[in-house]
Amino acid sequence: MRAWEIMSKPVVRVGPSTPVPDATALLVQYGFAALPVVDADQRVVGIFTEADALRASGTGGEGSRVAAYMTAPADVVSTETDVARIARQMLDDRRRCIPVVEDGVLVGVVSRRDVLRPLFRRDETVTADLRSLLATYLHRTSEWEVEVSDGVATVSGEFAGDAERNLIGILARTVPGVVRAEIRETASPATKGAVDEGQGG
What we know:
The chain has eight helices and eight strands, in the order H-H-E-E-H-E-H-E-E-H-H-E-E-H-E-H. By secondary structure, the protein is of the alpha/beta class. A three-stranded mixed β-sheet has the order 3-4-5. Strands 6-7-8 form a three-stranded mixed β-sheet. The radius of gyration is 24 Å and the shape is elongated.
């Protein structure tokens, strides 16, 4: 699973010249742990956290600008960064949220809640989402058995070839809650019967 699949957007952001009280008010209003700080080109130049807001308050910096108290440089990830890597980065660096960029431009934010949300989806819900996704792209879900157990998605049946099997695996891994996909080739009853008759003759 990649960052673009779980990130929150649109992003509430501030600029380096934003007054500290205004940025702090946004943190309180939205319940965020941090706000990305971007320049005129929407490139991340820092991050303004709750700790930064407290530091500004404790040092009489309420009349200052965000640039004076923001944490810089800010850690960022790309839209294609694996979620497991983001989780490790959050734990190692004690980050509660990380900005997501594409071509250097801010496009989203991943919070700890975003990382955790897919892990606690019921298997039945994930299975239904996977069936719906396969039906949308391939229109053939009635021919396959689709099951998700503990985050492992299994799609069994007959497939048109390696390309179709690979596509199903790719699609399955995009569903929130799927941690691994297994694609199993099984003969249909009609095919199996034809093979058995041929062998019996």
